[in-house]
Cytochrome c peroxidase (Flavobacterium cutihirudinis), 605 residues
Amino acid sequence: MNKGCFYYNTIMKLKHFTFLFLALCLLFSCKQNEVPKTTIKQNLLVDLTKLNSEIVHFQELVIKNASQKEILEQFKKSRLVYKKVEWAIEYFIPETARFMNGPALDEMELEENRSFEPHGFQVIEEMIYPEYKIADKENVVRELNIFQSNIKQLKSTFEVITISDDYVLDAIEQNVFRVISLGITGFDSPILQSSIPEAAESLISISEPLEIINSNNKTLENLKKLTAKASQYCTKNNNFNAFDRAFFITEYLNPISKKIKAFQKEENIKNVKKTSPLKPTVETLFDKDAFDVNGFVLSKEYNFTKEKAVLGEKLFYDKSLSKNNDRSCATCHHPEKAFTDGLKTNVSLTGSNLARNTPTLTYASLQNAQFWDMRQLDLEKQSVDVIQNKDEMHGSMENIHAKILVDNDYIKLFKKAFPKASKPEAWQIQNAIASYVRSLNSFDSRFDEYMRGNKNTLNNQEIEGMNLFMGKAKCATCHFTPLFNGTVPPTYSKTEHEVIGTPNEASGKALSPDKGRYLYNKMPQLVGAFKTPTVRNVAVTAPYMHNGVFKTLEEVVSFYNKGGGQGLGYELENQTLPFDKLNLNVKEEKALVAFMKTLTDKKYQ
């Protein structure tokens, strides 16, 4: 090889080496300068640090005796920062969340007969609004110290738990449902009513964790645009009483929850396996089959089947279940009246009036407490309680079981309902009756059709009534959408009671003497406490309240409009219902009644 060729090849090799070296340097430099991708957990910890800074500043303002305006503004700002991380706190650490943003009511553990005082934003809200007094300064500072301790607890927990994609999706979906059923109703901002701006913050927080899962997902881009529009709508329409919830849910929140579910399917993220009345497959909270009646059963062998319901229906109408063979379950629960009886209170076997009004059995399966006083936790025990009650049916489960064992028709039905059993068992009688009750949920009212996209089913007055129900009238802070009972969303694991101060007579001269839950749990907070029943089918279940005191929905609305028992002047320190007047005018009262009538299932219309 001549020298020219040798030099040429050497130079070319050096150039190639130099190029590779520079390329590697450039690549290394880019990697060095590239911002590392954060995890969902890291972002949560950063947001909690921000929340803590806001609470510290809030405390500083209180300590230096800042004006009420400054304190209120900082309170609102702190809540907005909380709303950004609420989706994770409520889902992963609900025990702590309860004492950060729960109702300003005692938390009760009835099994142990003890209670815990409330803490958090709602307690502070009552201290600083509508009037903040320096005399409350020490208590506010104390609450803020507790709040900071809770933030510290949250950080410690988030640092050690695993946050997988399936749980993130489930938590985010629940957060949308929380906005629908609690957020825009004013449930956690009952006095200041700052719920609408807070709902906007909750929705904006949706995209960030999903971006970490996959920022290139096309559905995510559409979701971000939709949540941005929803947030803008809240900003432009931030008046709590005037906010159009019917429009907001159907145009924004339902489509948002559908896109979250679409994102989940596109990313092949599995559903979280859990026992819950709300099915993990739902696209919106208003899907016809959104709720699972097995969510409150004792165990799998008690699960609902159509065969059990057929057997249960026969038992429901069988008068031989009573001692004198003259009463069945249907004696007090008439199917044409949505399984009520139309009476103020029914009559006992001895001819005297029973103490309480007969409640509807429709949607009774979607709560974890039965009877007005919530003394039984499931439908199986509820049926036995009534059958064996000496004033109602005075039957014997042993005698009923003995009769069934020699009845060929029943044995055939039991064989179909419980194919693995060699012969009918006593517990199966209870389970069959309960299964029939579990079949009484239709979710096909005009309201349901409207929420699923048929805008022709409700008129303007009814839509106004819906907005009042979920807003100014505060109905939905106890009767939660869409079950409209006291089973608390979005987990639906607890059914609430309320103390509302029901009068003994419609004239309102005296408080009802019935002590409600207190009869079974001797705690002062429970005097006069009753389960929050469903408002579904309320148009056909008159009269109303635990004692049937009100004959019409108009009377019921008037009672609440006046502020319940305290509003009527009764001494009722433990009333959980806000006792200030709602200030509904006649037009609004009529709209509210009109809306409640849209909750009637087709079979009762």
